[in-house]
Predict the 3D structure of the following.
Amino acid sequence: MSNCRELCPGCGACFPIEVGPVHPYMTSSPACWRIYGALLAAEYGDAALMYTHRLSVDTYAVQHPGDRSRRAIQSVGLHLSRLMLQQEKEGPPEETNAVMLRFGAHKASLDWLEPPQSFSITVADMEPFIGGPQHADAVRDWAAKTWADWHAHHDYIREWVKAATTSPD
C-alpha cells in the first residue's frame, strides 16, 4: 500500500493513519476496523454473501487477538474453534453457529494462544473484493489461509473442540 503509515497492531497490515473507532478488545488500527466494517456492511446488504459472513467474523477476530485478558483469550479460542469447524467439517453456517453457542459453556477452559508472527492475507487484501463478484471466494481464501497461519495451535483447538462437544453441559 503506497500510503502506508501505520501497522495494525492486530493483523500487521499497513494502512494510512486514520482517526476513528476501534473494537474494545480486538486490537486494530482505525483504518483496519473501518475496512472490516465495510466488509460486514456488504455482507449484511447482500443475502448471497451471508453464507460467508461467519467466516469473515471468525477470521477477523483471530487476526486481532487483543491482550491476554480472559475475554480476548475466549474470543480467539471460540473463533478459532468455529473457523476450524468451517474449514475441516464443512456444514451450513447455522450448524457451526449452534456448535459455537455450545462452546460458550466451556470457554473458561481456553488458554492463551500465541498468535502467528504474520498473516498470509488480511482485511487490507480483502478491500478490493468487498461487495464484488469475488467477495465470497476471497473470504473463503482469507479464512483458509488464516486457519493455516494458526497451524501451531491446530492440535490444541481440535482437542479443545472434541472435549467441548463431548462433555455434558
